[in-house]
Amino acid sequence: MEQKDAYNAFAQAAETNDVEASQAICKAANRSVAGAIRDFRAVAKAVEGELESNKGLKAEEKEKFLLRREQALFLEGDIWSRLTYPEERKSAYRTRAVDAFERYLAAFPKGKYGAVALVKIGTIHTAEKKMDESQKAFARLQKDFPESDEAKNSVPRLAKTLIEMGLREEGVAQYKQMLETQGGKYSSGQFLAAGDALLEAKGWDVAGDAYAKSIELAAAVTNEAARSAIVARCLIGQAKVSLGQKQYAQARQKLDDFIEKNAKSALVKDAYEMLVEVASIEGSTEKDDEVRLRLFNSAVGAVKKLRGFIKDQKSEEGRLALDGLALRSGDVLVRKMEAEDAMNLKEKADETCSKAVVSFQAFLMAHEPTEENPAEKMSPAQLANLERCYSSCLPLMVRVISKMPKETDDEKAAKAEQRAQFDKYAATYQKLFPNGKNKVAVQNAVNQAKAE
């Protein structure tokens, strides 16, 4: 887990615009990686010592020890190969990775991860422009592991490994080479896998080409269920490509078409999940009132459709899923309000704000702590939903209260009642979540309410 968390941190740093924050994240991640490398070396050494000193181990126990040593040796090389920070150390990291993989192959020449290790060695040499060494590694792959998936898929494996090493452009170029290959060398499934990998690497255009090629070749797949599954995944992939390219209208159209024509597909749920996001984003910039309303209604409608995919709605897992969808409905309304504010449609924004408050208050009425259901008995997931709802609702309530008239006694009473509800919610939030991640937003809302 230590190295996985570090990889995630490096990915986060890459998406951070703040240079200092990015460097701080990378330095912390490097420390985690160094700890993981020490751990793997210690495991390999300890297992080697155990095998050397205890010759009477049973075959089953010896096999387990050998597997642990094999994994530790391989994972050390894998970690070195993924390091990219700081930039000036990358070449040194790659050298260490090759050395670690070669140690692994020397200890386990026909090992479980041998083919993967050779792909990574060849990839590193490719990245370092050592083409002769790269070719030698892939020749060893063909010779020592001829029946392996890696040997049969050396180009896509090379491409995927380059991307994992942070060499996105080089990896995308390899996938392009795969697409340009003639003679039916690659299957529909291989192009589907390429599309998925390119999608993750944000190589949108090439991903779209890979999905299109996969659909074209799927016609030759004789098993109808397998063919349908491949095509369905490609169609969802193409919608994701359009989303990644910020072509929201195209993405929505592809999703609508998929839902209409593939109602029984297991991926319809994925389509509705995407539709919530796509329709909301598209609606956020739509100037036409009717079209914008239709888009946001489409997003809300998709949320409602997702309820039908929750099989056991009475189980704890089912109830949590329903809660998440209820909150997403409120989120869609907030996004609509923000869009209307941006377009200076203040009256419409105020109206949408009121609807969002009603949505979040309905959730709180059903979920706020009571004597029968105290916060102490709530699960972490339930508390997270509760905090999210309070922190979403309170700032909106301030806006609603500020717009309420107070000319007549009835109007004053209604406003006082709403303010009392706000104070109750704010006090409950601050009691339950004194260090909540949204405490600043809640405190700001409290301060605004006091200024009213």
Structural overview:
- With 452 residues, the protein is mainly alpha-helical.
- It folds into three domains: 1-152, Tetratricopeptide repeat domain (Serine Threonine Protein Phosphatase 5, Tetratricopeptide repeat, Alpha Horseshoe), CATH 1.25.40.10; 165-244, no CATH class; 344-452.
- The chain contains 20 helices and no strands.
- The protein has helices spanning 2-14, 19-53, 59-82, 90-107, 114-127, 131-144, 149-152, 154-164, 168-180, 188-200, 204-218, 224-244, 248-261, 268-284, 289-307, 316-342, 346-367, 380-403, 409-432, 439-451.
- Helix 9 runs parallel beside helix 11, helix 15 packs antiparallel against helix 16 and helix 18 (380-403) runs parallel beside helix 20 (439-451).
- The longest helix is centred in the N-terminal third of the chain and has 35 residues, at 19-53.
- It is globular, with a radius of gyration of 28 Å.
- The model is unreliable at 6-19 (pLDDT under 50).
What is the general shape?
globular
- Count of extended strands: 0
Question: What is the level 1 CATH name of the largest domain?
Answer: Mainly Alpha
Mean pLDDT: 87
The CATH topology name of the largest domain reads: Serine Threonine Protein Phosphatase 5, Tetratricopeptide repeat
Taken in chain order, the helices and strands follow as HHHHHHHHHHHHHHHHHHHH
Q: Report how far apart the termini are.
A: 49 Å
Percentage of residues in strands: under 5%
Can you tell me the residue ranges where pLDDT is under 50 for at least 5 consecutive residues?
6-19
Report the oligomer: single chain
Query: Given the helix and strand composition, which structural class is it?
Result: mainly alpha
Number of helices: 20
Instruction: Quickly count the domains.
Output: 3
CATH architecture of the largest domain: Alpha Horseshoe
How much helicity do the residues have?
A: over 70%
Largest sheet: none
Annotated CATH homologous superfamily of the largest domain: Tetratricopeptide repeat domain
Radius of gyration using CA atoms only:
28 Å
